[in-house]
Amino acid sequence: MTLAGLALTGDLARPARLTVPDLRRWPQHRVDVSFECATSGVQRHRFAGPRLYDVLSDAGPGFDPARRKDRLRFLIAVTGTDGHHAMLSWAEIDPDFADAPVLLGVRIDDTPLDVAGPQLVLPQDRCGARHISGITAIRVDGGYRCGTPAPAAPAHAAAAAR
């Protein structure tokens, strides 16, 4: 049996490659989730797994400790095996801000996800679009800057706009 793994990368002191058994080392939380799926209607599932906040905090995000609000510029990108992506802000999962109970699900309806890979579970979302199955990568990025000018448009795009 081959275990699915995810790459934890970005602005982290301790990037890692984690499997579902690795994710079971953190405290496990359970949540019943109901969300609307555009293709199959309302879905109801019970998930168990660690909080995303706990896993990422242990990886050592590159916050400036002298600036309490520095955490607010960090974004979290999650990618699944099917290429589906979702973005979260650090403030969504941080207990000092929104404290959303976002999980890395390692079990769905009492079925282990060792082979399929963990799922991103957002109990607070009414729509299931940000639920990611078979997570392959989580990237924490503190390089985002508000107000950074957009790159200049290529010359051919500017000419076509005239």
UniProtKB/TrEMBL annotation:
Membrane-spanning segments: none
Q: What is this protein called?
A: Oxidoreductase molybdopterin-binding domain-containing protein
Q: Which residues form a coiled coil?
A: none
Q: Name one Pfam family in it.
A: Oxidored_molyb
Instruction: Please give the superkingdom of this protein's source.
Output: Bacteria
Residue ranges constituting the Oxidoreductase molybdopterin-binding domain according to the UniProt record: 6-114
